[in-house]
Design brief:
Length: 230
């Protein structure tokens, strides 16, 4: 334990808590100060100048990261029998309806993303108590309730991620793994942050992108200068 604390202390000393780094600098630094012995996730935390209680400012959406997240997402597709093959051929790990609804209802959540056809939502909607708290409920706004189940599944497998603002006005999102190059991490971060800039609600007043912090699973947070974000 002392060894880990020593490594963490050394990592913390490399990060100037009073400085705002450029996005490029932050992506290089986050790799240097990662103390995890595994291929940790690299996450971006964006505090926005919005009021999530207002419907038009409760941001949620999707973005396709050019280099993916580095993690293969397990996809569950709720589909009618005629669409099962399409979903499985596109890479869904599980596809079906009644039997899968029953399993989830019993507490099974061994998957990362749920895709559903509109016709299945009457049954899927009853799973809110299981899927809702985990952020797994499919939604038309994120493209996970659709007739084009094959495309939705392949999009997720290809690096498409969903994000939503929390009640504090912060968006938390993985943008890759520490094994990624700084250039790959920056390209993924640019895609996410650029999407958030384009989604700025017209009713949001004042400073929109208040703070941006980058960190790996086991690293100190690195502040990014919002002015360096295109």
């Amino acid at each position: 334990m002392a060894k880990l604390s020593k490594a963490r202390k050394a990592a913390t000393e490399k990060v100037d808590a009073t400085k705002q780094y450029s996005l490029e600098e932050a992506m290089t630094l986050v790799k240097e100060v990662n103390t995890a012995k595994f291929n940790a996730s690299v996450d971006v935390h964006v505090r926005l100048g919005i009021d999530p209680r207002k419907a038009d400012q409760a941001l949620r959406g999707t973005v396709t990261l050019p280099h993916g997240t580095g993690k293969t997402k397990r996809v569950l597709a709720f589909v009618t029998p005629d669409k099962e093959k399409e979903a499985l051929d596109a890479g869904a790990d599980y596809a079906g309806l009644d039997d899968l609804v029953a399993r989830v209802n019993d507490g099974w959540t061994d998957f990362d993303v749920v895709v559903a056809m509109p016709q299945t939502m009457a049954k899927v909607g009853r799973l809110g108590r299981v899927l809702g708290p985990r952020g797994l409920m499919p939604n038309p706004k994120t493209g996970t309730v659709t007739m084009e189940v094959g495309k939705a599944v392949s999009d997720v497998k290809g690096g498409k991620i969903a994000f939503r603002v929390d009640k504090f006005g912060i968006i938390h999102s993985s943008i890759g793994r520490v094994e990624f190059s700084p250039e790959q991490l920056k390209a993924n971060a640019d895609e996410l942050l650029g999407t958030l800039v384009r989604m700025k609600p017209s009713s949001a007043k004042g400073n929109y992108m208040k703070s941006v912090t980058v960190a790996s699973t086991m690293s100190p947070g690195i502040k990014v200068d919002p002015k360096t974000i295109a």
